[in-house]
Predict the 3D structure of the following.
Amino acid sequence: MLATEKNRLGLLVILSSPSGAGKSTLAKRLMAWDETLRFSVSATTRSPRPGEVDGKDYYFVAEDDFKKWVTDGEMLEHAQVFGNYYGSPKPPVEAAIQEGRDVLFDIDWQGAQQIGKSALRHHVLSIFILPPSIPELRRRLETRAQDDVDVITKRMEKSWDEISHWDGYDYVLVNDDLDKTEDRLKTIIAAERLKAAQQPHLLDHVRALQSQFEELS
Amino acid sequence: MLATEKNRLGLLVILSSPSGAGKSTLAKRLMAWDETLRFSVSATTRSPRPGEVDGKDYYFVAEDDFKKWVTDGEMLEHAQVFGNYYGSPKPPVEAAIQEGRDVLFDIDWQGAQQIGKSALRHHVLSIFILPPSIPELRRRLETRAQDDVDVITKRMEKSWDEISHWDGYDYVLVNDDLDKTEDRLKTIIAAERLKAAQQPHLLDHVRALQSQFEELS
């Protein structure tokens, strides 16, 4: 049997970046580019904000349930941020990988590190998006929200904490042009899908070659 | 300073495959695609065949010189095949990597393994090309050469030895369609050029971000 696109394994595509570097826009563009991509919806114990939809933006869960998932090994990664729990449920990811569907994660460096140590680490593609400059990042945070100065300062500090963990990702892209960064992301994902680790059926192909070689000898 | 294409490091792009799987054709197409690619010309102690040009097809060298290069650490990899020495001189590769030029290697699994353990291993992109089938491989070997049956049998055995080392390469492609394989190779090379390990100037960018963050705080 030939190794085909169909029988490849899915990738865990991790996108991390400080808030305001364009990550969410890029994630949306990737989802529009390839409808086979699954987005990993995080679970959280924080309350929904106006307009947020359960099961789409987040799975909104009670703290007891969240903690039970963690102890049951049902969370791929989790962390506490500003007093709330966030995490990536494991079962939908494992199912997608086996179906040959890539899963896109919009998570921070802590989550990326945890997934990077998980049993699925050989299928991880991690990408960090850097902003072109800090003034530009601040401008985007200011334009975007109605937040007051204190909140923006707090976000900038969290942004710097995130940026300081840029190292250790497979790819690090400076998002100075959304279209260019989008193209680069597509190229990277297209290539990584071809990785030997994503193509378990290559083994069947090599076994078939071996049988053919033995028949000829 | 922004990380640009210009100040990236070059890759060592290793193509391995059994003879007859299309590797030479693919290597030529890649060289035609990107004129910044350098081809690593191997050194050998075997005699030139009619039409072979010194410095283009091979560096034809005396056995004493070859052995001196090896002991002086000037060979990135070397091996003895059918009584002759073959190897990849290191200095031109190191120079190209620093200039941000990728170097293409058409070498066997022994060479690939040696380069994979060298000091340049973090810049290696290794790709193995598999034939669609053994009868097809044999047909290509028979059509190509005026070799007699014994030589072809010997080559088929060497081919199988090569195929049996397919595992351990970053990428393994089944060449059932030259154009498709060529496109895949280009995608893979384009992506790997963006790897964090190939972009040392990212560090300058992050340092600039840090200065900007400290100024704002």
